[in-house]
Amino acid sequence: MSIETLLPWVPALPLIGFVTLVFFGRRLGGRWSGIVATVAMGAAFAVAAWLALGSALLRPGWSPPRVMGIDEKHVVPADYLDHPQEAVYHSTLWTWMTVAPQYDLTVVTRPVRAGEPVPADAVTTIRLPQARITHDLELFATSHRMFTPEQAIGRIARLDLLPIGPDAPLNGDRLLAETTLLPDAERAIPAAGLPERPLGYVVDVALQLDALSLLMILIVTGVGFLIHLYSIGYMAHDADRPRYFAYLNLFAFSMLTLVLGANFLVLFVGWELVGACSYLLIGFWHKDPANASAGRKAFIVNRIGDVAFLIAMMLIFTTFGSLAFADVLPQAADPLVLSGGVATLIAALLLVGATGKSAQIPLYVWLPDAMAGPTPVSALIHAATMVTAGIYMMARAHVIFDHAPSVLVAVAVVGAVTAFGAALIALVQSDIKRVLAYSTVSQLGYMFLGVGAGAYASGVFHLMTHAFFKALLFLGAGSLMHAMEHGFHHGKGSGHGAASSSEDHDDDAFPPGPPPALDGIPPEQDLRHMGGLLRKAPVTGWTFVVGGLALAGVFPLAGFWSKDEILHHVIGRAGEGGAIWLALFALGLVTAGLTAFYTGRLLLLALFGAPRSSGAAHAADSPRTMTAPLVVLAALSIVGGLPWLSGPLAEALDPVLRVAGHVATNVAGSAHAAESGPSALTLALIASAVALGGLALAWAMYRPGTPLVDPARLATAMGGAYRTLRGKFYVDELYAWGLVRPFTRIADFLWHRVDDGVVDAAVNAVGRGAVALGQGSRRWQTGYVRTYGLGIVIGAAALAAWLLWLV
Amino acid sequence: MLFNTSNALGFPVLSLTLFLPLVGALGLLLLPRRHDALYVAWGTFVAGTTTVLAGILWLGYEVDWPFTTTLANFQFADPARGPLPWLPGGVTYQVAVDGIAVVLVFLTALLTTLALAFSLGSVRTRVREYVALLLVMETGVIGVFVAMDLFLFYVFWEAALIPMMLLIGIWGGKERLYAAYKFVVYTIAGSALMLVAIVAAKELSHAASFHYFDLMHALAPLPGVGSAPGIPVPTSGAGASIIALFGLDLPHAALAIRIAIFLAFALAFAVKVPMFPFHTWLPDAHVQAPTAGSVLLAGVLLKMGTFGFIRWAMPLFPDAAMTVAPWLVALALVGIWYGAWVAFAQTDMKSLVAYSSVSHMGLVMIGILAIQPVGMAGGALQMINHGLSTGALFLLVGMLYDRAHTRDIAAFGGLWSSMPRFSAVFLVVTFSSIGLPGTNGFVGEWLSLLGAFQTRPLWGILAAFGVVFGAAYMLRLVQRVFFGPPSELSRSMPDLTGREMVVLAPLVILIFWIGLYPRPFLAPIEASGTSIVETMRQGVAEAVAPADVGARIHPPTP
Question: Residue B407: which residues within 8 A CB-CB, separation 6 or more?
């Protein structure tokens, strides 16, 4: 099968899984639902992997798809043939929306004898909407004194049915047009050939596969499959599994649509659908209103970004006349088509859209709350895939960003500030999932920083490594929570922990069962109740350590390489003399230190030291379906960043992400980094030192036994700062006070005061007025003939006066 | 022939579709007494047959005939040969559908069928009259969509109004008389003005009849027909003295007259849409109306207003429409924001959906008033979408009301546990209502917004924020009704019955169908919509300057 035929199966398989579960989920039951969903994901991954091997996208020395023996109908458009490095496979499924199709018509304007070739200067092209073709050709013909309208209509009606010859000339303008003479024509005939695809507003449901989307589908299906597998174990005791797995499959479908869409609108379909799935999955345990609220918050905050995206798409359409990447992006590279102002506007709107989906300042507030969903969901949606959609989208549309250097700086600033601020908040959180959530926000900020520096490939590279280690950390956290719950329920006296009781005799000091929740954090995910879990749950524990070290950026784990590359590009731009880039680099470096510190704190509090609750004391490792994905992800977190993988990756991504020559100065950092900044080795050493410093500081504060620096005393000493960070800078409170409360108050005001009090009251007043008028005029209906007679006389007189006046 | 009125089927299928419900209502008289279920079954059967006929029309409507001549989109004309003189004074009878009407007729028939099917067991008093009124109303609404004569249009317009008033007044809730009264007075006030405008449009332009083609010919100069006189400026009498009073020069005076007539139409239609600030009858009518009444009111009656703009007011007075459009758009924009905002505060489910209609119909109006092919297609498609999603919402609320006898949002909560199927359908409809891609709402919303943006970017931008607002109030509703701990009331609620699922299934299918593959709906709509837009533009262009061929045909760009 050709690549184009296989491609739609990648999103289709999870969709089939979803539909199956919607209709038969209950009959299948929880266990089989999980299996169906997981198999669907596995199959999607298999197809994706097959595509990776079968396509030329990841091979060095790429050759055009024509050579690959793809059938002629699906060959890439002519634009790509001019740039043979850009490998793209297209698969158009059906036409989605068509409005007012337009056609470019080639028309002969001068009399030409039958049989003679038409001279070039007698040919002109006109672009007309379908509805106006007859009419305008008619006028055209009349104006050139060729036909009377009647004659023209008949002839054109015949001409428009002419087939387009197989060897019709390709007129460079993406149009096939044909110039023909009718046999009986002494004079010139306007000749019309319909191009294969009309211009005007046409949007296809179409997929496209290039190196960037290939990488994304591999991540989504691969990590997605592991997380589905993990969910079978994690959700084993949930009664609502069919619904859970249906949502999970729907999410996978949506995300795959997002990354495979061949135009902005299909991308937007995925973009909104992942938001909807996120809404459904955050509120999965909807009996708790807090969960449902978190889901709603996520959806609405996302939608604010989506509005910006919508407006950007409208602007893109009015600027380029199309939404297809194949039309828009090559045109966007042309400064004559895309002026700097419009580029800046579009890019800025896309940036706002991206901050919503990828949880950046100012729209990041939904992500930490999204942790209300089941933990595998947090791993899949709120760490590995959906939240990276913003980075994917900016990389996809980078040609537009290349023309908007000021927006690129904004992207970098947003990213760096978010990375720094979120890392600060992560320092002091006690909820293991919240630490990871803020860490995700922070790491997404890094990716923004990379994109803003013009190092798109580095941003995408960090996206990939982050997907590995953050999914690992979330799943690990879920596994730890699972272990803790096990401990709470099988604590002292249950007879279950006989094997471990010999070494745990001193842990019996803890009362059985879960302790009361502190600050509303469920005890099984509260770091203050953990401790010593490395011994109790070794597989989870050790893989968690690997994930943590990768996040901290310790050599040679995945996070080290990708983070280093981003910093490398940022300092490269600083070398050009931009003070702002130096500041951003410093911020990035400090954030790296903070990251290492909170990761170290997380690892030490959760895994080392003595257990601090019965849950931790009696914890047990999770079943194989849960630990196996951890091991795989740990392996990926170790090797995922190694240069032997990242080198070819960057090479494969290069055709998609390369910056065109004439705008290279806007984003030059990526090109000249090596010459201007510190050498790669120096930077790597600095970054490693910072990471190790952060870890060492964490060790000093949270090591088992007596800390060198007591965190509690530090917190008291820096009370104000500590409380601000604990309170997450009070941004949620600020939004509630500044946005949500006014919104609801205005709603009430509009309803009670304006709608009932003014608009409707006015209507009723008019009604009462009419009634009063009727009451008044009722007096005229006296029933006395004399009154009516008077009326008739007055009326007749008035009528007569009017008639006289008219005459 | 400039106006194509082909009838491919060869028999008067459109008149049949139009009058079948009326005949069916009369047929109710023949049925034995006190067989309530039989009446509803009969009504459903009649409406179902009408739906099949409407489906035949929709499938038979030819979109792709090559290079359509402007306005050649009217099909299934009956009488096919030409209008039949009906009343003295130039009132004729002819019915035909364009691409927009054909889809609306189908929607009307479908929603009436579903509303009747739902009513089985839901309505217990005066069932025979109830069914009869619904069928009569169906004829009235279909008549509005198919009438080719402006006066005939008016007759059907009024005919659709009376059954709805009775439905609200007899089968409504506690405040039903107030609501029915308000509904009638409000609408009559608008349509009285429209009647004046109708007569003025014909008499002032000296059109041969009230027939659409005659009016178009007289009012909007069509290319190829020779330049039409339009409305001559009065040079004597009261009209002339008014003109003298305001010191208008002749071209402006002619425009002023056209604008005045257009505004009279616009007001009647705006009340029906309803546009802010003429909307306050809607929440009252909806809250009081029985479920079937609400479904049809929101689903099709509101569309009569927007359809009036598309078919009559705008093409007949293109220059007036373009002059006034920004003001109407301003009202529509206020409606989008205001309706959504007020919907957010509602405590009654029906009135929430009613206010959401104000918001959604604002979007429809923006798309139409953009006077762009894309916006026109989007606005017209959004009419269908709103009919489907809001119709479904009212059905769902009705099902809930039949179980709980309350529509108070606060009384519910946690319904998902006891009614998972119902909740899932409600969620799908919610997604459709807030325009999630993949559902019908998105296609119409996006096209409307894009059309508005093409005309004035600011319109598109301001309207786009309705997207956030829609999500805010609908998700708030979903959360408070379906999520959270189950309330006392919610715990004992039975899930959807088989009959209810059958009623809802067509709507859910259409929601996804239009969302994913809108072509069967969009193709006829956009062909006619584009044709209307082109006609309007040409009408204005020719009115402003004589045909300038060179200006319209662009030289080739190197």
Answer: B287, B348, B349, B350, B397, B400, B401
**pLDDT above 90 (res B114):** yes
Instruction: Let me know if residue B85 belongs to a domain.
Output: yes
Q: Of the candidates B169, B167, B172, B105, which has an alpha carbon nearest to the alpha carbon of residue B132?
A: B167
Band the pLDDT of A525: cuts 50, 70, 90. Answer: confident
Q: Note the pLDDT of residue B542.
A: 57
Quick: pLDDT tens for A746-776: 888 888 888 887 888 888 888 788 778 878 8
Q: What's the gap in Å between the CA of A247 and the closest CA on chain B?
A: 12
**Can you tell me the distance from the alpha carbon of B71 to that of B483, in angstroms, rounded to the nearest whole number?**
51
Q: Does B431 touch chain A (CB under 8 A)?
A: yes
Cβ–Cβ gap A100/B530 under 8 Å: yes
Question: Does the complex come out with an ipTM higher than 0.95?
Answer: no
Number of H helices, E strands in chain B: 25, 4
For chain B, what is the mean pLDDT? 84
Nearest chain A residue to B73, by CA? A131
Please give the span between the terminal C-alpha atoms of chain A, in angstroms, as a whole number. 88
Tell me which DSSP letter residue A263 carries: B
CB contact under 8 A, B471 and A125: no
Task: Report if residue B558 sits inside a domain.
Answer: no
pLDDT of amino acid B313: 92
Domain assignment present for B285: yes
Spatial contact of A633 and A436, defined as CB atoms under 8 Å apart: no
List strand residue ranges (DSSP E) for B95-240, in order: 95-97
Q: Which of B73, B342, B534 to mutate to test the interface with A (most CBs of A within 10 A)?
A: B342
Question: Does the beta carbon of B534 lie under 8 angstroms from any beta carbon of chain A?
Answer: yes
CB contact under 8 A, B70 and A99: no
Give A368-437 as a DSSP string: HHGGGS-HHHHHIIIIISGGGHHHHHHHHTHHHHHT-HHHHHHHHHHHHHHHHHHHHHHTT--BHHHHHH
- pLDDT tens digit sequence for B388-426: 999 999 999 999 998 888 888 888 888 888 899 999 999
C-beta separation of A159 from A140 below 8 A: no
Task: Give the three-state DSSP class for A108.
Answer: strand
Tokens representing A708 are 């060198």
Distance (Å) from the alpha carbon of B124 to chain A's nearest alpha carbon: 33
**Residue owning tokens 């119709």:** B391
Contact residues on chain B for A288, CB-CB shorter than 8 A: 484
Angle at A733 between CA B435 and CA A438, to 5 degrees: 80
Q: How many domains does chain B have?
A: 1
Residue B556 belongs to a domain: no
Q: What is the count of residue pairs from A and B with beta carbons less than 8 Å apart? A: 202
* Integer angstrom CA distances of residue B545 from A149, A651, B4, B550: 20, 60, 28, 13
- Structural domain boundaries, residue B385: 3-551
Give the best-scoring range by mean pLDDT among A7-16, A316-325, B123-132.
A7-16
What pLDDT score was predicted for residue B426?
Answer: 95
Contact assignment for B373 to A205 by CB distance below 8 Å: no
Strand partners, A97: A203
**Chain A residues with beta carbon closer than 8 angstroms to that of B381:** none
Q: Which of B346, B370, B366 is nearest to B356 (CA)?
A: B346
CB-based contact A618:A537 (threshold 8 Å): no
Domain boundaries, chain A: 102-198, 452-488+532-713, 732-806
Nearest chain A residue to B186 by CA: give it: A763
Query: What distance in Å separates the CA atoms of residue A326 and residue A77, rounded to the nearest whole number?
Result: 8
Interface contact flag, B67 A748, Cβ < 8 Å:
no
Contact A311 B518 (CB under 8 A): no
| Alpha-carbon A201 to chain mean position | 24
pLDDT at A149: 36
